[in-house]
């Protein structure tokens, strides 16, 4: 069997996934174009917040300007002030964003935009899983 570029790329990707140990399936093309299978992103507990988990899907090395990840809420909520712009794409369940006593609701397939400097509460009446996209990518350094 002759080793070609496609086979080599698959071997490298599998090896990197195993090295990450998180099971996330991510393909990074040499051009920098990337695809991430959101169903393989395993959220981790977030900062002692009950019922809140998240996982960044991209690193600053991979995407220095924009960040992306997945967040889950299980009958939980998280009060937060955003120091960055954020889009949330609801993958499953219902995501609610409470701001100034009002609630914006998104269901599976919906996109919610939250502007920089918004003080909000992420919450759900039951369970939700959503992808977040932030600008700038180093959002964790800004809080």
Describe the structure.
With 143 residues, the protein is mainly beta. It has one domain (38-141): Jelly Rolls (Sandwich). The chain is built from two helices and eleven strands; from the N terminus they run αβββββββββββα. It has helices spanning 5-20, 139-142, and strands at 26-28, 34-36, 44-45, 52-56, 67-74, 77-81, 85-99, 102-107, 111-114, 119-123, 127-135. The strands form two sheets. Strands 3, 4, 5, 6, 7, 8, 9, 10 and 11 form a nine-stranded antiparallel β-sheet that branches. β1 (26-28) and β2 (34-36) form a beta hairpin. The protein is elongated and about 65 Å long. The model has no long low-confidence stretch (mean pLDDT 89). It holds the Pfam family EutQ. InterPro entries: EutQ, RmlC-like_jellyroll, RmlC_Cupin_sf. This is Ethanolamine utilization protein EutQ.
Key words describing this protein structure:
143 residues, mainly beta, Jelly Rolls, nine-stranded antiparallel β-sheet, two-stranded antiparallel ribbon, elongated
Summarize the structure.
Helices cover 14% and strands 45% of the residues.
Count of domains: 1
Q: Any idea of the CATH class? A: Mainly Beta
Please give the oligomerization state of what you see: single chain
Helical amount among residues, as a percent range?
10-25%
Please state the overall shape, judged from the principal axes of the Cα atoms: elongated
Note the gap between the termini: 52 Å
Broad structural category: mainly beta
The SSE string, one letter per element, is HEEEEEEEEEEEH
Q: Report the count of strand segments.
A: 11
Protein name: Ethanolamine utilization protein EutQ
InterPro entries: EutQ, RmlC-like_jellyroll, RmlC_Cupin_sf
Pfam family, one: EutQ
């Amino acid at each position: 069997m002759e080793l070609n570029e496609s086979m080599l790329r698959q071997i490298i990707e599998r090896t990197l996934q195993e090295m990450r140990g998180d099971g996330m399936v991510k393909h990074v093309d040499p051009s920098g174009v990337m695809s991430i299978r959101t169903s393989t992103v395993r959220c981790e507990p977030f900062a002692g917040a009950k019922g809140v988990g998240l996982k960044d899907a991209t690193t600053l090395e991979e995407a220095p300007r924009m960040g992306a990840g997945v967040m889950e809420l299980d009958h939980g909520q998280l009060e937060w002030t955003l120091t960055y712009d954020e889009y949330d794409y609801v993958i499953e369940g219902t995501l609610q964003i409470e701001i100034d006593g009002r609630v914006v609701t998104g269901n599976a397939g919906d996109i919610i935009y939250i502007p920089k400097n918004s003080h909000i509460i992420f919450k759900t009446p039951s369970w939700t899983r959503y992808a977040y996209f932030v600008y700038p990518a180093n959002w964790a350094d800004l809080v």
